[in-house]
Amino acid sequence: xxxxxxxxxxxxxxxxxxxxxxxxxxxxxxxxxxxxxxxxxxxxxxxxxxxxxxxxxxxxxxxxxxxxxxxxxxxxxxxxxxxxxxxxxxxxxxxxxxxxxxxxxxxxxxxxxxxxxxxxxxxxxxxxxxxxxxxxxxxxx
Length: 141
Ligand code: TYD
Hints:
Layout: E1 10-13, E2 39-43, E3 52-57, E4 62-68, E5 71-76, E6 81-86, E7 91-95, E8 100-104, E9 111-116, E10 125-126, H1 129-137
Antiparallel strand pairs: 1-7, 2-9, 3-8, 3-10, 4-7, 4-9, 5-6, 5-8
């Protein structure tokens, strides 16, 4: 992979091992993802109309998948915003550190799987969008 593409938001397709007994997809450390996996968590039972994860990180890189159902991933890199609809459990989005992201418009019974490059640390969070933009504009993020 070209170095300049490593730290950009991008969709990554996972392989699908087809089987008449049911399909299987896999993510193995240091293959496919541009980071080493430190943590995995999932968001579920999201009531209609709620959004989750409206913040950015100083250090964490992530890979987000709709393991079940669907939701929209809103992303802002400090200059441009985009919304990516996730509705396949073999497709996810790589999000580099220093990116504002939010999960919204969850369909009933959806599960958002988040794979992260760091252990949980409240200090890694940037929870104010204004602060995020400030940090981006001053190249501190
Ligand atoms: P948070 O990331 O703040 O979710 P959201 O941005 O959607 O509100 O996490 C919600 C709560 O869960 C918060 O109190 C911290 C806790 N939490 C952990 O303890 N470990 C984790 O790895 C994560 C992601 C959250």
